[in-house]
Design a protein that fits this description.
Elements (H helix, E strand, L loop, with lengths): L16 E13 L3 E7 L4 E7 H14 L5 E10 L7 E12 L13 H6 L1 H4 L3 H23 L3 E2 L5 E2 L10 E5 L2 E5 L4 H11 L1 E9 L12 E10 L3 H22 L1 H6 L4 H5 L7 E3 H10 L12 H8 L6 E4 L12 E2 L2 E5 L1 E6 L4 E9 L3 H10 L4 H12 L5 E7 H9 L20
Helix pairs in contact: 4-6, 4-13, 11-12
Bound molecules: 4-amino-1,4-dioxobutan-2-aminium adenosine-5'-monophosphate and magnesium ion.
Length: 431
């Protein structure tokens, strides 16, 4: 029996007989020869069946294979300079595993709704598989970087008694006799963990019932949330730019083929690693006004503003020190200008918008208590959070990186829904 090998490793089996286990991606025939394109999750290879060599029976078996049929193919690996993978397989024997019914996703164009209804099958398309691989590489690069910098991963709860960001976007559920919410952000728990472990991060799903149907919003998305004790605003930004630089470098080094499958402009990514430009919120407002936007100090940015601001740079840009009024209750005011907070949003280039939101946190007990009152937060559910300011409080900072937005940007895709295996979007819970 020939050894079972993966398509991706075929170049090291030239002139040897091997067995492939995969799915039929596409097929061409010229009467006497059939070209079977086989995929197995590691690559795509052309398998050539010549009637006069394999005999009528095997040739007929090849002909019976429909798109996406699962099949084992045995044959000899041949070097072929014209093939993208550098090899092809000369078929000797095929062993159909299951003959697929008529496959709904053909190689022609389909509408987005149709593809989303068939997401479980759409994932098999090379472009979608490439996206999943890039996503996995980005996750690996993030944990590799943070683990290497002395961060400890801590997993926050998903069911929570309170909100972290905006109460209007909470997913409510019940927890036996209590009200509960799906987490919007693990930040508050990471703050607690940072007081124990120094540098921590979480990486998991977050839920926001945002009624915004944009190409940047998901209802369920993944966030990476580092939190660091004894770290202030400036160092917080340094960690972010070096993390994002590491991630982009990793993808450039490990996902060459996937980026090619996606037609990603690699030269744009190559400009990213390094020190990122910065703009204050004040400068950003002035810039937008100069560009003719109808916006004034105190307004929040929308997608067109972010695109304009980030469009000046080939690297991500930090927009720093937003008005206190615009941002979450826990952000530390600038000591010289309490009307702004020590925060920054990182906007990705090429119109991808905010990929990171972060800040220094209020560590003073009295100020935090005052904010609770201003924001009408129920003290009973948040008392544990105040404890962090009662017992050995220190300046600390952190941020949240949106995984799907980061994937969409690095992979260069139009819409965030393709950056996750099974997207939950507005009005879509299937499949
Ligand atoms: O700016 P946000 O809301 O920040 C927080 O939640 C902080 N508590 C994080 C922290 O400091 N630990 O969200 C952070 C990032 C955004 O920059 C964006 O990339 C992503 O999370 N994000 C979303 N991604 C997809 N769909 C949504 N609905 C998102 N909402 C936020
Ligand atoms: Mg934000």
């Amino acid at each position: 029996m020939a050894p079972v090998v993966k398509i991706g490793s075929l170049p090291s089996y030239i002139e040897q007989t091997v067995m492939l286990e995969g799915w039929l991606y596409n097929k061409r025939s010229s009467g006497k020869i059939q070209f079977l394109q086989l995929r197995d999750g590691t690559g795509l290879v052309q398998c050539v069946a010549v009637k006069s060599e394999v005999g009528d029976e095997v040739f007929a078996e090849c002909a019976s294979l429909t798109q996406e049929s699962s099949v084992r193919v045995e044959g000899v690996v041949r070097a072929d300079e014209r093939a993208p993978s550098g090899v092809e397989l000369v078929v000797q024997r095929v062993e159909p595993v299951q003959i697929a019914q008529e496959y709904p996703i053909t190689l022609k164009e389909h509408g987005v709704d149709f593809l989303m209804d068939h997401r479980h099958l759409w994932l098999r398309v090379p472009k979608q598989a490439a996206l999943m691989r890039i996503r996995a590489h980005i996750q690996r690069a993030i944990t590799e970087y943070l683990d290497g910098q002395g961060f400890t991963r801590v997993d926050p709860p998903i069911l929570t008694p309170s909100s972290c960001e905006d109460t209007t976007e909470l997913f409510q559920t019940t927890y036996f006799d209590e009200e509960a919410y799906l987490t919007q952000s693990g930040q508050m728990y990471m703050e607690a963990a940072a007081m124990s472990l120094g540098k921590v991060y979480s990486a998991g799903p977050c839920f926001r019932a945002e009624k915004s149907k944009t190409r940047r919003h998901l209802i369920e998305f993944w966030m990476v949330e580092p939190e660091m004790a004894y770290v202030e605003h400036e160092e917080n930004l340094r960690v972010q730019e070096s993390l994002v630089s590491h991630v982009v470098t990793h993808v450039l080094n490990h996902c060459e083929e996937e980026l090619r499958t996606l037609n990603r402009d690699i030269s744009a990514l190559a400009k990213v690693p390094g020190t990122f430009p910065r703009m204050s919120y004040d400068e950003a407002i002035a810039w937008l006004q100069k560009k003719g936007f109808d916006i004034k100090w105190g307004d929040d940015f929308g997608a067109p503003h972010e695109t304009e601001l980030a469009g000046q740079f080939s690297q991500p840009v930090f927009i720093e020190r937003y008005p206190t009024e615009l941002k979450a209750f826990y952000m530390q005011p600038d000591p010289n200008r309490p009307e702004v907070v020590l925060c920054a949003d990182m906007l990705a280039p090429e119109g991808y918008g905010e990929i990171i939101g972060g800040s220094q946190r209020i560590h003073d007990y009295d100020l935090m208590k005052q904010r609770f009152a201003q924001h009408k937060l129920p003290e009973d559910t948040y008392d544990w959070y105040l404890d962090l300011r009662r017992f050995g409080s220190v300046p600390h900072s952190g941020f949240g990186l949106g995984l799907e937005r980061t994937v969409a940007w690095i992979a260069g895709i139009e819409h965030i829904r393709e950056a996750i295996g099974f997207p939950r979007t507005l009005y879509r819970l299937y499949p």
